[in-house]
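Budget justification note: compute hours in this period were largely spent on complex prediction jobs such as the one shown. Inputs:
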Amino acid sequence: MSAVPQRRAVPSGAALMGAMVRVAAWGLLALVLLPVAAVMAGGLSAIAAGGDAGGTDLLRPSMVSLALVAIVTVLATAIGAGTAVLVAGWRFPGSEVFSCAMVLPLAAPAYIVAFAWADLTAPGRMLDILPVSGFGGAAFVLTFTLFPYAYLATRAALATQSVCALEAARTLGAGTGRRLGAVVLPMARPALVAGAALIAMETAAEYGTVSYFGVRTWSVEILREWLAFGDRAGAMQLASLLMLAAFAALLVERSARGRARVAGGSHRWRTPERTERVGPWRWVASAACAAPLLLGFVIPIAGLLYRASIAGVSPAADLPSALLNSLTLATLGGGLTIMFGLALAAAGRRSAGVARGGSLLTALGYSAPGVVVALGALTAFGWAREAGWVGGFVGALALGVLVWSYATRFTAAGLGQIEAGLQRVTPSLSGAARTLGAGAARRFFAVDLPIAAPATMAAALMVFVEIVKELPATLLLRPFDFDTLATRAYGFASDERLAQAAFPAALIALAGLVPVVALSRALGLSRPGTRTGALPAGQPTLARPRTLDPLATPGE
Amino acid sequence: MGAMEASPPVSVGDVVLSGVGVRFDAAWAVDGISLTLRRGCVTALLGASGSGKSTLLRAIAGLERIARGEIRMGPQVLANANTHLPPEARRVGVVFQDYALFPHMTAAQNVAFGLDARPRLQRQALAGDWLARVGLGDRRDAFPHELSGGEQQRVALARALAPEPAIVLLDEPFSALDPGLRSELRDLAGDVLRAAGCPALFVTHDADEALYMADQLAILSRGRLVQGGSPHEVYAHPADLTAAAALGSVNVHRGRVQGGVLTTPFVALPAPDLADGAPAVAVVRVEGVRPIPGTAFGVRDRRAQGPFTLLRVEAPCGALWKAQARADVVSDAGAGVSGGRCDLSIAPGAAHVFADLTA
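Corresponding output:
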């Protein structure tokens, strides 16, 4: 170093840089959230001006939606948390297999499971006992396809729970029941709440299943208003009210979670001992795990595959092109979403405001049903066309709008995982890079990004599959004659051509299996102390499975 | 970094801290720290947890801003209230408490990280050299998680020193190691640091480690510098109770001076500088209190401490002091301390009387 005094007035330079990063990050958030903002602005201003939401009866869809959300959330959370406790605490026939397999129902979208159950229980079919249809059918299908969210959250929380508290409870004379009720579940409460919130949001946003069963929830009602009655303004007003409710629910959930922070306390991770179950109870435990797995995945998917394998039916001729379209959209949408997630996560590390705002606002986008996002994206597009910035809604431009609305829906999912991955870059790692002379860019590309790479890859995979499964936005925004696996499957099913629907549906489920298996493996590996002793803090593994929760705030 | 590759190992001056203060919100984590870190000299910053020693280290590294005072390196101002040279421009080598090795890079890549301005071949050669110098020549391609704690520590040391920093900072570098490994690495680190020739500062809460490794000692308490100097000087002439207690186990007695003397339950200590009736505190190092044959005090119990035996001696008023004797002198049978009673002899220089500012 030269002996020349080298003064640098960094405060102003750093402040300028920080301000630029903040402005860019909020700009990006605005772009991501524009469809939701467009719906809320357009709808609420029309209501304020005396709009009557197209004359729709607001009470009925509200009651139906609330009832469905309440029933599904309670049942699915109970099933998910119950099986997680069984698998984490006991050893019984098949417990190792169930430990991974309980997440399988996430692979198939609910609407495909709905087609399969409707087909299997239709009059004259194999399981013609009690037809799965209507409100009960929707609740049944959603419960058994969504419970893995609660399972994953609870299991991850149980796996990372400090064994010390459990041992302390034991030495203080608490039996199994008291340990469960007084120690295990209260410590897992934040995870339980997060899992339940996810289930509630997925249920509220669901379109394919409820519309297939003719259940008139808000999502269905909005689309009816829009397409059946051609009243887009009325649909906007309905959608804006729904988003207002979602935003309020999100804020409540956030503040509840803020208070319910039950940190691990001790950092001595050790796999809690699992007790060997003997006697009849072990078979009860096996059955309790097998039942939801059979109902949510094995039976319906086996039924579909059987349907597809019946002689005389061959896949529709356009199946390859639908597959290609699905893969293209998922690649583009996944890429854009992950880029947005990386940019927001990187900015969030520099500014706590961006981190908080990004987490909350992208969660709002995630909570928006596909129908609402499509409506908002079209509205925003209409504004741009009025301003003369863009031409007609055709071809590549329409695809662009579709990819953009995927980013609106799924940035939260990518962001949460990437943030969790970046948390591996501890302050002292950043400090080490800085003192070794690395500037901001080199730190990001040489240290942050490689360390967060496994989590980023996992996030990309998850978003990719979410997009392959996504139905309503794709259905509404796709260009004319542009079909994906999801729209094909739904189209055939709506036309009662279930044998034909089985092919694209099976392909979607197959695509969904890949990240679910990866996730399940990560669940096994993510617990320090498994495998070869303690995993070193920095060893790259897939992100913790509880980061599946796209609503997770960093630092929890 | 910029100027470094143009002029290889240049003599850089001492690092001088004057009146440095770091504020966290309303509270001053450290304040009024003045300290000179000399080239080729290892300084130990000793303090309890929460004393602000790590904050001061981070401020020198540039990872923390200072709100008062100035940090200079020779003629160059690194930081004052208005200037903050960012850490990447300071040429500091830091060994973090958790080592902070990049988990996705091999040992050699970690060491080469700070050498990025040099040609590729030279980087690799230098990284290899440094790993060999810390005894890890055969572990260049190992990832951090494949290395033991001691090996990780040595990679961190090599990584900090490879870019030939102008100052090396070590944050509790040996705290995560078990005792045997610790003493081995202390010697290695001491040799390597002195050979590097730049100022070195390490933070520790371990008095033995500070005394053993340091050429200069600085004792920090509640964000303030209590005393600085050579280890011997600070040990022999502590400035106050805190400084004395920081470097070992002490017996303490509080009282008032009478006629230039502070009378403790065990011994009367001269306090020539204190006025009659002034509150005072006597501080007597345990290793300077020896039991001798006598009957004045009772021996409450004795504990083996390797080559020494530690006794707790009780005065008639009930006060307890600790005393230390060679184990072969005071056996369990009590040779030299007959009938469980003894007198005490205070080694010259082991007792200090300070004005008691807490009274």
